[in-house]
Design brief:
By secondary structure, the chain is an alpha/beta fold. The protein is built from 15 helices and six strands. The protein has a six-stranded parallel beta sheet with strand order 3-2-1-4-5-6, with helices on both faces. Bound molecules: alpha-ribazole-5'-phosphate and nicotinic acid.
Length: 350
């Protein structure tokens, strides 16, 4: 298993020359220049990542990192931690929002237990520990545990690469993970907690107020250093965010395009990019989360979303929703006649 340090050293920048060749192919196609907008940009990006002009995303998976969060004790969520395992079990049976969407998008579901309170059969076991601590009282976990979770994500990306997966979508499930995500986002962006915090899966006004207070108090207490991503995750993060950060790093390491989902996934992507800026070139933004910080995080990542659908579900639903758009883009890119071909036909005597 590759260590985080080794992976960080081995991640290479994307190869622009393949992206440039893909752009020339788009420009030769018989349609107004650039008229498929972000769909064209996505294919150019994928070509650079895969290092091939005839890029291919026909084999795809959605990895769903599942973990529990000790901070749920503080009343920052609408439902209890037991819901994490219930939904996770449904991932193994194909009965969740993301499963139904992934079936249509022809994406394999890979549910990963990176730190749930309960063991659920049928999941990829990458459990670092049974849930985190309540970060209002003590650090969520140790630095070693953060590194272990990141390394599990990197390892899983390696396994997906070995299986021939050509595109990964990132998902998560873990009650309380919008609280950990808001805390991490506030530290990494240096923005006020209020701007970074929303209602998650559905909090009341009073609940939202409490959630903001809890995060503020915890940050006051831990004073995490924004330059120390592992330290921030250890103080106020979650195992799902750490595992996802590893997935982003691992996909970059293996030249796999990786689709960012919503709020939690964006925070994990930001962690990965702060650990290794070259990772940015391997990311594709699917949609803009309806959580208050959704747009800000995408800006911070330098990404433009393909979809604006007002989604705020998680599980990887937004990332999976964008896959059919990419399929359509690649189909046009491959099959559509070029200006040259059409002109040649036009000169044939009728
Ligand atoms: C039944 C159910 C299914 C979900 N699927 C995704 N989430 C989403 O909501 C959770 C984060 O919100 P919070 O921080 O407010 O707990 C995550 O698990 C996320 O994936 C769900 C939440 C619930 C309740
Ligand atoms: O945007 C998200 O990823 C999100 C928002 C609310 C709850 N769960 C996930």
């Amino acid at each position: 298993m590759e260590s985080l340090e080794q992976a960080l050293q081995r991640i290479e920048p994307v190869r622009q020359e393949f992206g440039q060749a893909a752009k020339r192919r788009w420009d030769s196609i018989a349609k107004p220049l650039g008229s498929l907008g972000l769909l064209e940009d996505a294919v150019v990006r994928i070509a650079g990542i895969q290092r091939r002009v005839d890029c291919d995303i026909s084999r795809r998976a959605v990895t769903i990192f599942c973990a529990d969060n000790g901070i749920v004790e503080e009343g920052v969520t609408q439902c209890g931690s037991e819901v994490t395992a219930v939904v996770a079990e449904n991932f193994t049976k194909g009965d969740s929002c993301v499963c139904i969407m992934a079936e249509l998008a022809n994406a394999e579901i890979v549910p990963v237990d990176i730190g749930m309170n309960i063991d659920v059969p049928g999941m990829v076991r990458a459990k670092v520990r049974y849930g985190t601590e309540n970060f209002l009282k003590e650090p969520a976990m140790s630095r070693q545990e953060v590194v272990k979770a990141v390394e599990e994500g990197i390892y899983l990306a390696e396994k997906l690469a070995e299986k021939g997966i050509q595109l990964t979508a990132t998902g998560e499930m873990g009650i309380g993970n919008t609280t950990t995500s808001s805390a991490v986002a506030a530290v990494l962006t240096g923005r006020p907690v209020e701007e970074m915090t929303g209602r998650g899966a559905g909090l009341s006004d009073a609940g939202l107020k409490r959630k903001i207070e809890v995060i503020k108090q915890a940050l006051e207490q831990h004073q995490p250093d924004p330059a120390d991503v592992i330290g921030v995750l250890s103080a106020v993060g979650g195992l799902d965010i750490a595992g996802l950060a590893g997935m982003f790093l691992g996909c970059a390491r293996r030249h796999i395009p990786v689709m960012v989902d919503g709020f939690i996934s964006s925070v994990a992507a930001l962690c990965a990019v702060r650990l290794c800026p070259a990772v940015q070139g391997y990311l594709l933004a699917s949609h803009c989360s309806e959580e208050p910080a959704g747009e800000l995080l995408l800006n911070e990542l330098g990404l433009t979303p393909l979809i604006r659908a007002g989604m705020r579900l998680g599980e990887g639903t937004g990332a999976v929703a964008a896959i059919p758009l990419l399929d359509m883009a690649i189909e046009v890119y491959r099959k559509m006649s070029t200006f040259e071909e059409i002109e040649i036909e036009a000169y044939q005597p009728l």
